[in-house]
Amino acid sequence: MVNQVQRVDGSWQTSKSDSSGASNSGESSKESSRCSTPLLDADRSDRLREKMRKRMESGDPWFSLEFFPPRTASGAVNLISRFDRMGSGGPLFIDITWHPAGDPGSNKETSSMMIASTAVNYCGLESVLHLTCSNQSQETITGYLTKAKQLGLKNIMALRGDPLGTDWEDEEEGFNYATDLVKHIRSEFDDYFDICVAGYPTGHPEAQSYAEDLQHLKEKVDAGADFIITQLFFRADTFLKFLRDCRAIGITVPILPGVFPIQGYQSLRQLVKLSKLEVPEEIMEVIEPIKDNDAAIRSYGIHQAVEMCRVLLDSGAVPGLHFYTLNREVATTEVLRQLGLWIEDPRRPLPWATSANPKRKVEDVRPIFWASRPKSYIYRTQDWDDFPNGRWGNSSSPAFGELNDYYLFYLKSKSSKDALLKMWGEELTSETSVFEVFTSYITAQVNRGGHKVMCLPWNDDALATETNLLKDELEKVNRRGVLTINSQPNINGKPSSDPIAGWGPAGGYVFQKAYLEFFTSSENVTALLKVLKKYEPRVNYHIVNVQGHNMTNAQDMQPNAVTWGIFPGREIVQPTVVDPVSFMYWKDEAFALWIEQWAKLYEDESPSRMIIKYIHDNYFLVNLVDNDFPLDSCLWQVLDDMFELGCTTILTDRFLFCVSFFFFF
To answer: What span, in angstroms and rounded, lies between the C-alpha atoms of 178 and 180?
Structure first.
């Protein structure tokens, strides 16, 4: 297959590519991008047990969160959104429970394996996958562990698990104790996995005695477990006694208390039944009179959890807290806020969301086009063998995977079809209706139907804080049919700690070129190409339609660094680039979202669908880079000039038409 790229001088540059569209001219950027640049965040490559050790040595307490797989596909979408929100508070890790009845090791979107994989790969969260012995052979367990490793999971919580019936039945070809599972993991996978095991502050309900259960716990640790998470409890003294007893018999690994903020009467009863625990009388005396008032119970549960956690942390013996969330966020988040553990650090390791997959630990460069769709970028590059480190390399980028399934649960919009119709229009009457949707999103004001537009097909979240700096200018151009999907302001040496633009280690400075990406009509593009001639070489551009006809003035099709940082004792890091070849992969996705996410909301052949299809078929996708970052951005003036020239052309055409009409008659 041959690609032709029209350059600004009208000439055509030809390059060969394979059937996937990847250019084969020059060396692969996967090979040419190798660089000795150190990782911005060394902890990304650390093991979980090492992260714990460092936090313990520094006296910095942490928290972790437990979730269970949902029962439905829509529940999976909601849970991934919750990961993103709760991940912003800084958990050291999350863990995902294993339910044998729910096909937990399958590729179903509701399986434990897929939820944990998504948390690691697409949400960037260090994750622990539960694995039980219940009703499973050694061969099956080995298969699950192999699959977990292939998916980038590197932490396992080894459990015996609950019996499928009333009593535990021995598995002839499996394991009957968590100790055996730990030994098997170490035997088959050496030291690859960090292993967690369960501890019981009041003793396992099936153990003959508390002392015997402590010995079983020590056997699990001696077999190779790296840390312990306990069953829930209701009094701080219960855990502190358990901790002392563990240390007394030689258990030295970290022991994390399992904390359950009481959130409702029925959920408390169910959890107590499953764990075979007794709720202290003083707690029941408070809860019984308010058992029908969920808000009151949640308020009490938050207070009780905060008071208990303060005692634990003040003891100096508890390095971190593990929370049983029941897949809810309000109570746990509030407890963490009151404890001062919920810290939304505005400084990011990189300007984009990183993956926790160890295979991607060197990755520190990406094209800017996927800035608002990081999960999509990870999905499309999941089969790469290695990743750019230090620089993107030349334009012969590696092939991106196809994105044909827009409805994978981790790529799907968090909003329902009904919600999207309310935001984007139950019925569209013209292109102007679409302009209004984009404008409502930028301004965060209600649309003509009285609904706030909280997302677009190209961005499933509210407007980023950084983009708010451009809000007024973005509003103006969107009203006039420049439909923006990506932008960044110019930055000239902001501290890396800046709450809006900052990223990377402390003590550094970050820089950005002004960038703007948008869809617009062919008439606007005609005027824009004329205007851009007077802004060269300051402004680089790339303009393409859905058929692949593209125009650019990118020098030799090389990537253009649009974000970089300078940090003490490190090389310059350039984490985002505008790359002409990658742009051609992105354009397929960007145009397809008009159809896949928007047009399909409407009936076939309906006026609304035809309007979106017209835009898809006839508009161009444009990106502009202002290379003179120390100066105020000129991109808004470029667009003003485009609008002015476009209006002049229209008026001239109308004048010539009128003159012709006059002389004809």
So the answer is: 5
Distance, in Å, from the CA atom of 412 to the CA atom of 393, rounded to the nearest integer, reads 31
8-state DSSP, 603: -
pLDDT digits 0-9 by tens, 530-578: 999 999 999 999 999 999 999 999 877 789 999 999 999 988 999 999 9
The values of phi and psi at residue 101, to 5°, are -75, -10
Calpha distance 488→469 (Å, rounded): 9
CA dist., res. 200 & res. 232, Å (int): 8
List active site positions: 66
The span from the CA of 439 to the CA of 481, in Å, is: 10
Distance separating the N- and C-terminal Cα atoms of the chain: 54
Tell me how crowded residue 284 is: count the other CB atoms within 10 A of its CB. Answer: 12
Question: Exposed e or buried b for every residue in 592-619, given b needs 16+ CB within 10 A?
Answer: bbbbbbbbebbeeeeebbebbbebbeeb
Strand order in the sheet with 366-367: 366-367, 573-578, 560-566, 509-512, 491-495
Distance (Å, whole) CA 590 – CA 579: 15
Task: Provide φ and ψ at 620, rounded to 5°.
Answer: -110, 150
pTM, two decimals, is 0.86
Render pLDDT for 342-366 as a digit per residue (tens, 0 to 9): 998 766 889 998 899 999 988 999 9
The token pair that represents 173 in the structure block: 């070809």
